[in-house]
Amino acid sequence: GALCVDGRVNCDEGYVEGLVVGEGACSSPATTGRPYRGRAYISGGVVTNAAGVVAVGGAWGEGLLEQTGGELLGRSSKGLWAVGFAGGEGTFNLLGGFAEDKSDFYLGGVFTNAFDGGLHLNPTKHNNWPSHDHTAVGTLTVTGGELCVGKALNVGFDGAGVINVVGGEGAISVGSLVLS
Fold first, then answer.
1. Residues in CB range of 180: below 8 A, 6 or more apart
2. Which of 25, 33, 39, 174 is 20 to 30 A from 81 in CA distance terms?
3. Are the beta carbons of 34 and 137 closer than 8 angstroms?
4. How far apart are CA 158 and CA 42, in angstroms?
5. What is the pTM of this model?
6. What are phi and psi of 61, to 5 degrees?
7. What's the mean pLDDT in 63-77?
8. CA angle at residue 71 from 65 to 74, to 5 degrees?
9. Cα 35 from Cα 12, distance rounded (Å)
10. Residue 39, pLDDT above cutoff 50
11. What's the pLDDT at 118?
């Protein structure tokens, strides 16, 4: 499926636990390929995420988050952003706008209990979590706009992570950069 946002979306704690795009841990494992595909496009407006969780492309899934404008705001330092995790493939293209993660950002794998705290992605709650799969691929491409990460940007923690900054119109600021 696809989600297109040009307005306001609130992902508040207790209602929606975060923005999850292209993730298959809640389904039966696929036998081949990546049948779990999701896409989200943000072109304007504001997406606020009180839980601070953004998960793109995990657990046999393939996810694309593309932002051309507006704001994507992770409002909790206790959440995390993960692009490509648990054997999934995730892509975040920031072409314009502002994205803010007050927590840790994982590009290409996360630690096994990364989503503890009641999220449906928690491996202790679902037998379909492929914690043994270390082939995650995460890609972050910034050609415009600004990405601010409050804590660490972890690249290749449990898989492969790639950062592309193209041209002079985009910016990334991080608390720390960890290359694994």
1. 154, 155, 156, 157, 161
2. 33
3. no
4. 28
5. 0.85
6. -95, 165
7. 90
8. 75
9. 28
10. yes
11. 40
Tokens of 136: 């995650």
* For the chain, counts of helices (H) and of strands (E): 0, 14
45, 72 contact by CB (below 8 A): no
Please check whether residue 131 is in contact with residue 112, taking contact to mean a CB–CB distance below 8 angstroms.
Answer: yes
Rounded Cα distance, 90 and 83, in Å: 5
Residue 18 tokens, joined: 């975060």
- The residue count of the chain comes to 180
Tokens of 122: 């928690």
pLDDT of residue 11 exceeding 90, the answer is no
Q: Whose structure tokens read 């009641």? A: 118
Q: Which two tokens stand for residue 157?
A: 């923690």
Nearest CA among 74, 81, 33 for reference residue 55 = 81
Residue 139 · residue 37 · CB < 8 Å: no
SS3 content of the chain, % helix, strand, coil (to 5): 0, 55, 45
Alpha-carbon span 19 to 84, nearest angstrom: 14
Both tokens assigned to 146: 């600004």
Per-residue tokens: 164: 């592309």
Q: Does residue 159 sit in helix, strand or coil?
A: strand
Q: Is 127 exposed, middle or buried (0-12, 13-18, 19+ CB in 10 A)?
A: exposed
| Alpha carbons 129 and 38: distance in angstroms, whole number | 18
- The pLDDT score that the predictor gives to residue 20 is 79
